C-alpha cells in the first residue's frame, strides 16, 4: 500500500510537469521545481485532509481510544500519507534541493519513522489520523505559497487566504497538536514505541511553533522579519516566506 502511494504521487508529479506555469515561475529556473513540488503537496493536502476529517466523522468512537482504536480507513490513510512523505523525500534529494529543504527532510524522516511504526504495530493509528488533520491547514498554506510564487495581481485574494490560513492553523494544526501532546504526556507510557512517538511529537511541537512564528512575522508583522536568514537559492524561504 505504501509503495502504491509512492507510485501515485510519482504519477501526479509527472502530471504537474505538463501543467502550465505562471510567467513568474518560468522566468526563474529555481522556481520550476518548487512550483511542481508544491502542486503535488497541494494534492496530498486536499486528499489527506478530507480523508482524515471523513475518518473521524465516520467513526467518532475512535477518539475514545487513541492508543488502540482501529479503522480500515485510518490505516489506509496512514499508508497513503507515508507514501507521500517517501515520494517527497526522494523528490527533494534527487533534484538536489536538500540544502534549501533540509527542514522538510527532517520533518519527513520523523513522519515516515513514526508512521511505519504505527503501520507495523497497529497502535496509535488514531493519533496519526488526528495529526493528519494538519493537512486541512496545509491546503491554505500551500495556496499562500503558490500565490506568492506566481505574483498573482490580486491582493484581496491573498489577504482573504491569509486570514483563513491563520484560522485553519489554529483549528487543524495547533489544536490537534496541543491535545495529542497533552494526551501522550499524561497517558502514554514513556517506554518502547510510546517513548519514541512522544519524542517525535515534542520535536514536532518545536517545529510547528517555529513555523507559526515565521508565518506571523511574514504576514502580520513584516517589520520583525530577520533579513535574509534561512533563504534558499532564489532568496526565499522554502517552507514559509
Describe the structure.
- The protein is mostly helical and 241 residues long.
- It contains nine helices and no strands.
- The chain has helices at residues 2-18, 23-26, 29-58, 72-94, 102-121, 125-131, 134-150, 155-187, 192-219.
- Helix 3 (29-58) packs antiparallel against helix 4, helix 3 runs antiparallel to helix 7 and helix 5 runs antiparallel to helix 9 (192-219).
- The longest helix has 33 residues, at 155-187.
- The chain starts with a helix and ends in a 22-residue tail after the last helix.
- The relative contact order is 0.12.
SSE layout and pairings?
Blueprint: H1 2-18, H2 23-26, H3 29-58, H4 72-94, H5 102-121, H6 125-131, H7 134-150, H8 155-187, H9 192-219
The assigned structural class equals mainly alpha
Give me the count of strands: 0
- Rg, rounded, reads 18 Å
Terminal Cα span? 34 Å
Q: Any idea what the shape is?
A: globular
Query: Helicity, in percent?
Result: over 70%
Mean pLDDT: 90
Quick structural overview:
With 241 residues, this protein is mainly α. Helices cover 74% and strands 0% of the residues.
Please tag this protein with its features:
single chain, mainly alpha, TLCD1 protein, transmembrane, TLC-dom
Amino acid at each position: 500500500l505504501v509503495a502504491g502511494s509512492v507510485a501515485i504521487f510519482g504519477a501526479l508529479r509527472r502530471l504537474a510537469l505538463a501543467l502550465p506555469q505562471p510567467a513568474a515561475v518560468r522566468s526563474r529556473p529555481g522556481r520550476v521545481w518548487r512550483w511542481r513540488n508544491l502542486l503535488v503537496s497541494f494534492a496530498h493536502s486536499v486528499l489527506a485532509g478530507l480523508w482524515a476529517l471523513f475518518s473521524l466523522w465516520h467513526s467518532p468512537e475512535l477518539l475514545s481510544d487513541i492508543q488502540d482504536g482501529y479503522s480500515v480507513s485510518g490505516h489506509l490513510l496512514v499508508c497513503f500519507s507515508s507514501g507521500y512523505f517517501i515520494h517527497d523525500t526522494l523528490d527533494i534529494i534527487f533534484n538536489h534541493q536538500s540544502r534549501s529543504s533540509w527542514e522538510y527532510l527532517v520533518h519527513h524522516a520523523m513522519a515516515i519513522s513514526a508512521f511505519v511504526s504505527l503501520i507495523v504495530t497497529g497502535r496509535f493509528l488514531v493519533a496519526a489520523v488526528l495529526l493528519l488533520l494538519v493537512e486541512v491547514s496545509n491546503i491554505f498554506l500551500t495556496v499562500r505559497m503558490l500565490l506568492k510564487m506566481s505574483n498573482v495581481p490580486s491582493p484581496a485574494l491573498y489577504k482573504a487566504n491569509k486570514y483563513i490560513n491563520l484560522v485553519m492553523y489554529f483549528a487543524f494544526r495547533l489544536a490537534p497538536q496541543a491535545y495529542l501532546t497533552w494526551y501522550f504526556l499524561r497517558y502514554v507510557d514513556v517506554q518502547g514505541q510510546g517513548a519514541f512517538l512522544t519524542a517525535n511529537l515534542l520535536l514536532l511541537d518545536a517545529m510547528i511553533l517555529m513555523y507559526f512564528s515565521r508565518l506571523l512575522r511574514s504576514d502580520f508583522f513584516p517589520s520583525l522579519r530577520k533579513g535574509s536568514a534561512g533563504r534558499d537559492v532564489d532568496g526565499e524561504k522554502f517552507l514559509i516566506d
